[in-house]
Every structure is written in structure tokens, then in C-alpha cells.
Amino acid sequence: MGAVKIEKGYVPGSLGRVAELHGIYYHKHWGFGLFFEAKVASELSEFLKRYNENRDGFWTARADGRVEGAITIDGIHAESKGAHLRWFIMSDDLRGKGVGNRLIDTAIRFCRNRGYRKIYLWTFEGLNAARHLYEKNGFELVEELSGTQWGTQVNEQRFECCFYKPSQKSPFVRYRR
Question: Which residues on neighbouring strands pair with residue 60, listed in sequence order?
Fold first, then answer.
């Protein structure tokens, strides 16, 4: 596989490929089916149709012209709820090779440059490699509940990364414990 490039914004085929990567990985490892892949495809499609490059971020990791990973920042509610990190996925070919770190770093840098105070994401218990990446980049587990938003019963987890200490007024100083 050739050099990996991180590209910002929609590129033809990226919507379908990101849905495909999610469908394959989560079916293989968690037994998720059509409900989940269709949810990814429809929600990502809606996001891309309203995409605003000043507020939102959509990056793909491409190797040999093919999308092999992606990450998204949905900033539509960044001021009230925080920026929403979504659709973070890597192909089997790139998993464990540092590309996920590059994508998360890109997304966090984007949020900091926009002055967003917080990033949050929803995931579920058992995705240990992803959790490790989140925690090493300052995300903390803030909520857990049993739910079915992915089409099957899982222990859902909400992680947040705040860019300020509660006692600080500036949102530009990153706080890590």
C-alpha cells in the first residue's frame, strides 16, 4: 500500500466507502447488520449535504486513491453541546499503523482552531483500541447507559474532551489530567 494522505472534504465515493468500512468492521466483530450500515450511510449523507467547511470537518485517509479511513467533526451544535466527533473508522489494512492517530489529531486541531470548548463522541464498551486513542488524546468517559442506537443492545459510552479547565476563561488551553 502506498503513502497515506489525509484529505479534507468530500471526495467522490467517500460516502459509500465510509459506510462500507463501518458495515464490514461492525458486522465482522459485533454482528451488526443492515440497520447499522444504513444508519451510517443515511446520517453521513445528511451531514455531508449540510456540510459547512467553516464549522464542520470531514477527513479521509486515502492510500492509492482509495478511502481507507475517515473521521468527522459535526460542529452544528458546537456552541451549545460541543463538537460531535463521528464516523471514525479505519480499514483493516491501516488499523494499528498510526493513521488513526493522525486523523484524531487533525480533528482535535480543527476544533481547537475554531475555538470549540468541547468535543464529544458516542461509542460502546469493548472497542478498546479506539478507547485507547480517545483517552490518550484527552477524552474522558462521562456517561454510560444500555442502549440500542446502533441496532443491537450495547453498553453505550459518551466521551468528552474539554479544551479548558472549568476555572479558566480561555477555551484555547487544553486541559488533561
Answer: 7, 70
Closest CA to 81 of 15, 174, 162, 157: 162
Q: 90-124, pLDDT tens digit by residue?
A: 999 888 889 999 999 999 999 999 999 999 999 99
Within a domain: residue 111?
A: yes
**How many Å apart are CA 144 and CA 26, to the nearest integer?**
20
pLDDT, tens digit, 9 for 90 and up, residues 57-73:
999 999 999 999 999 99
Residue type, 157: Q
CATH number where 109 lies: 3.40.630.30
Q: How many helices (H) and strands (E) does the chain have?
A: 4, 7
User: Residues of the chain with pLDDT > 90: what percent?
Assistant: 78
Q: Is residue 78 part of a domain?
A: yes
Domain count, the chain: 1
Q: Locate 128 and state its grid cell.
A: 478498546
